[in-house]
Amino acid sequence: MLADGQIAALPTETVYGLGADATNKNAVDKIFKAKGRPDFNPLIVHVSDIQMARKIAEFNPTAELLAQTYWPGPLTFILPLNINAGIAPNVTAGLKTIGVRMPASDVTRNIIKHLGQPVAAPSANASGRLSPTKPEHVVASLGDKIDVIVTGGKSAVGLESTIIDLTGDQPALLRAGFVTGDAIERLIGQSVQDNTKQKTEDAPTAPGQLLKHYAPKTKLRLNAVDIEKGEALLAFGSVKFMGIKGGGHVRDLPISHYMNLSETGDLAEGASNLFSMLHALDQIKAPSIAVMNIPDTGIGRAINDRLTRAAESA
Questions:
Q1: pLDDT of 167-194, one tens digit each?
Q2: Number of domains within the chain
Q3: Are residues 238 and 176 located together in one domain of the fold?
Q4: I need a surface site. Which of 34, 111, 278, 303 has the fewest CB within 10 A?
Q5: Is the CB of residue 134 less than 8 Å from the CB of residue 276?
Q6: Cα separation of 273 and 280, whole Å?
Q7: Together in a domain, 170 and 65
Q8: 275 with 133: CB under 8 angstroms?
Q9: What does the pLDDT look like over 179-232, one tens digit per residue?
Q10: For strand 8-10 and strand 17-21, is the pairing parallel, antiparallel, or unpaired?
Q11: Distance between CA atoms of 55 and 44, rounded to whole angstroms?
């Protein structure tokens, strides 16, 4: 189907991606149309192996070291585009750079291998909305706008890949994710510039930089220390001292109105559950969702990035 220019939702360890042959401009156009995604927002290209990646991007020693350590896995490199690679121009939004990643899903890497071409794949959801970590999220967001969904269970990481720009003298983190900037710095022995707070409404250099992103339809209230009447709660860690304004405790909430990203305060577990729990709480149509504070360290930075953009967009 991909070889025939169709699009398909594919499982990865981060989120489900909406894939098309990255060398087929008409197929890539179908991604933008299905998602309602602005065509100035570039796409990440997924590869089956390092050899395929080297054909489409100009690797440097830092990229080689990071790929050896973290691929296959949730890390995307921004590198100079190999202009002879045959990548469709709408994939890169006309930029001379390209985002490339090797996903950890054996199923998806095998599909790419048998296709024999890299696959462009943003998240398989309507543009700006919550990313899908389960097949049913794809169905709910895109419906019959896509041709097929390859099911692979719940995404283990649950957050979009970390994006690091390796085109300048100093590496720059463009999107926070499971692989942290601190971990990258320790590996490469070089400081990494943190550009994750930069937000734009036009001409992004990588996915995930738009101000309006990752949004549920329900309004989010971040860093909540109590619960308003009627609100749903997305908790993290202990809720022992969390009460409802006007009287009551978390235990008095309807079961549908309460979810805990990680009762033990585990940030990796919290990241894995973030989008699936936001999807579930969004469906109950509460006036708002109160979100408890998430420590802004390690993977928590990525969780807070998604929550901040979601709160500004909802």
A1: 999 999 999 999 999 999 999 999 999 9
A2: 2
A3: no
A4: 111
A5: yes
A6: 11
A7: yes
A8: yes
A9: 999 999 999 999 999 999 876 556 666 766 665 667 899 999 999 999 999 999
A10: antiparallel
A11: 15
| Alpha-carbon span 58 to 67, nearest angstrom | 13
Cβ-based neighbours of 209, under 8 Å, separated by 6 or more: 174, 175, 198, 199, 200
Whether residue 210 contacts residue 41, with contact meaning beta carbons closer than 8 Å, is answered with yes
Specify whether 152 is located in the same domain as 240. no
**Rounded distance between C-alpha atoms, residue 304 and residue 7, angstroms:** 31
| Strand runs labelled E in 133-226 | 148-149, 162-165, 172-175, 193-194, 219-221
Q: How far is CA 299 from the centre of its chain?
A: 13
Helix (H) and strand (E) counts for the chain?
8, 14
Q: Give me the amino acid identity at 18.
A: L
Range of 68's domain?
A: 8-194
Q: How many residues does the chain have?
A: 314
Q: Are residues 167 and 251 in the same domain?
A: no
> H or E stretch including 195?
none
150 and 28, same structural domain?
yes
**Start-to-end C-alpha separation, the chain:** 35
Residue with tokens 């996903």: 103
Count other C-beta atoms under 10 Å from residue 226's C-beta. Answer: 15
Count the Cβ atoms, other than its own, within 10 Å of residue 114: 10
